[in-house]
Amino acid sequence: MRILIAEDERMLADTIAEGLRAEALAVDVAYDGDAALERLGVNDYDVLVLDRDLPVVHGDDVCRAVAEAGGQVRVLMLTAAATVHARVDGLRLGADDYLVKPFAFEELVARVHALGRRARPADPPLLERAGLRLDPARREVYRDGRYVHLARKEFGLLAELLRAGGGVVSAEALLEKVWDEHTDPFTNTVRVTLMKLRRRLGDPPLIETVPGAGYRIP
Fold this sequence. Notes:
CATH class of the largest domain: Alpha Beta
Radius of gyration: 18 Å
Order of helices and strands: EHEHEHEHEHEEEEHHHEE
Pfam families: Response_reg, Trans_reg_C
Protein name: Response regulator transcription factor
DNA-binding region: 124-218
Distance between the termini: 23 Å
Number of domains: 2
Number of helices: 8
InterPro entries: CheY-like_superfamily, OmpR/PhoB-type_DNA-bd, Sig_transdc_resp-reg_receiver, WalR-like, WH-like_DNA-bd_sf
Strand order of the largest sheet: 2-1-3-4-5
CATH superfamily of the largest domain: Response regulator
Keywords: DNA-binding, Phosphoprotein
Mean pLDDT: 87
Strand content: 15-25%
CATH architecture of the largest domain: 3-Layer(aba) Sandwich
Helix content: 40-55%
């Protein structure tokens, strides 16, 4: 999944981002509502973690704009207001879920994952193909019953290839879903990570390169 965090408390925003990246998610950060709208206009996000009291453009206006755009992004609204009226008001603006500060990070992660499942066609509990079995919940991968330890980006890349069900996934699509906006679009990071992933998965090779198109697990 690709996540946008819109939060003006920089320490909190950066802490959330690092925690979600540890979950093998691609995360971008905006510190005001205008920057959030700009990123939403150029990137495809699965989940927006949105502080309600943003500067420049208020969080309510960001939420309203997302709802009116009618895209796939799901909104988790953060606020210090704990009243029922405040929660209902946020949901009426178009938020999909609501979390009151302060919150347990584990709860935020669980809510982000739940919203991410709603933003795209539901994955099966296990992604399986060609002797591979990937468990998204446990973040475990097995090949022919053998456990394979993967780094975060390797895991995310393999998950995207398995979700394609044998279809070809372009390097651009992999970069969009697995890495964040700070990654150079002309970088060879996808190719390098694929090389490491192939090495970890072992022989015979499973990931096929389709010249001029991308990669697939046939």
